[in-house]
Model the fold of this input.
Amino acid sequence: MDKKIKKILLLLLLSFSICQESVLLDKISAVVEGEIVLLSDVVLAANALATQQRINPNTDPEKYKDLLKKSSESMIEQLVIIKMAEADSVEVLDKDVERALDRQIDNIISQAGGKEAAEQALGRKISDFKRSYRDDMKGKLLAEKYTTSLTTNISVTRGEVINFYNTYKDSIGSFPTLYKTRHILLEIKPSEFSSEEALLKTKQIREEIINGLSFEDAAKQYSEDPGSKDSGGNLGYVPRGTFVQEFDQVAFTLDIGVLSEPIKTQFGYHLIKVLKRSGEKVDVNHILIGIKISEKDKNITYKKTAEIIKELKTKEDFITKAKEISDDTTSGPQGGYMGMIDLDQYQIKELSDIIKNIPINTPSAPVLTQFGYHIIWVDEIKEGGPPSLEKNWLDLEQMTLNQKKSDWYSNWIEKIKNKFYIKRNSLSYPQINN
Done:
């Protein structure tokens, strides 16, 4: 019912032609079997791609327009695939969506040259982008999971790999030098003293609200959430599952208009006030007080990292320790394995500088990044150069397989789209400001 009401409201807003900048949010780029692709979502996705590919809309307008068209068509395809995936009961976990969002945001910030530059390129705060892009990311993961299941049985023969090599060897280019790399990550975690300090401040703000300070004014004055503080802490009218579990639970059980006790999440302490709630959606305000990391906390983590390095004599030692203690939940269970890294493309400079300089099968000294302290281990170095069947067989086999899957998908999606009602609207797309 909520979706139907939303669509009706959007169509009404369009028909009245409201002349405001925010009308962008109400324009419809396409419709797929009654599901809407909003122009704002298309622009948001294109802006993210433009930032990652370092395309300036003002100096490369044609390239940017191409990104907009591709983003719109990608969302149409995504809706088609989602409908098929839902029919087959395919699902993705919220934690996987959160992890993919974090990776995307880290990539955007890195490519833009910092958080402020990323927000300027995106045209919004990172926190707003994350909230707005969550549903799209969930759709991407769902579509990816479904299409992967369809192409699992596709394989290539030796003859196909040889034909691929003979056809494309002049355009493949040289392979880069790759470093087979592992790491152990120790996040810098605030001490109990830092946590208690943040809790005390949150309690003091709560007392001020109880004694007459409005929640909205308190948020503007104290909240450390840059995406919501200027709007009095308002996070919008959002569905269940938008927030982390601890926050979500309170937002959907707290009485309307009641000021919560301090709630601890991975971001710090929150004060929550629910404005309204309907079914699985809630309109909520919050105040965030982050738990600060002190120099003492950094020193404690550094010393712990240095002590661990003394225990790492072999690759087996490293793999075992990574599984036991690494705070990287993706690579840790894999013995810290980060993949075959091309240093020319790797985005974390602090790590790439270390990777190229440490001896093989030797732990690095502690390396500090925005994520915490790392210990780096390089298993082997695969020298790059012009492609050859003997030296690069596995790479060429994978490239052949990827192309075969891509060709299959292109043919399949065009046939599938013909089975759905799709209406594409002709709209003028705005540019982002750089």
Observations:
- Residues 353 and 389 are 31 Å apart (CA to CA).
- The chain has 14 helices and eleven strands.
